[in-house]
Amino acid sequence: MSRIVTFNTAGKADVVAFLGAAGNLTSDQQRNLGVMRELAQARQRDLDHEGLDWGLSIPDALDHLIAGHASSDAEYAAAAYYSAFQLIIDRNGSDPSGLGVYSKPSTCSLLDDELRRLGVSADLLPQAHLFAGPPDEIPFYIPYPVEGPHIGMWPLAKAKPAADAYRTVLGQMDGGFTCDTQHLIEKLEFEHAEWEFATKNLDWYTQDTIFFSIKG
User: Fold this and answer.
1) 100-127: pLDDT as tens digits
2) Phi and psi (nearest 5°) for 3?
3) Distance between CA 3 and CA 101 in Å, rounded?
């Protein structure tokens, strides 16, 4: 099954601040939550139109997260929770951009193997970031949706080191990986440049993480 990977940048602390914050949201957060609920309802209508029933609606999943739990025992509740959490990311981050469509789920692990073979350090390999899951700072457990959607994170501070490491070995890579790797390098370098400029010139800027959304 193909995986569609998109990403945006956000402040991890800004995202996590919504989890369990019911009753303590600022006026700006309340307005943002109102938009999230509208988006959750729209996404749920899409699922209903597709005939998909996760046993927990996305609006209800969003309310659970804001209340500070992800306790539904519905079989596919994890997918609803991850979808709701993605809405929180999106409303606190930049506009989403596309990273690519991978026709084989194994593509990322094979790319990891190739980069590892060429000496790239483990903390810079892409798969662990692309499928990292929600931040560890969330004060409760969100179940993992085996069939997706998935969420990943890449610290912006590691974007340039990773891009540099990939570029160093690009000419030695198996030809089947070079196009995807070059594309990833360009995305990481662009996001690093934006982050570096903003952190130096914008006193209100808080974004520190690239968040990935992976859907089948």
Assistant:
1) 887 665 677 899 999 999 999 999 999 9
2) -115, 130
3) 6
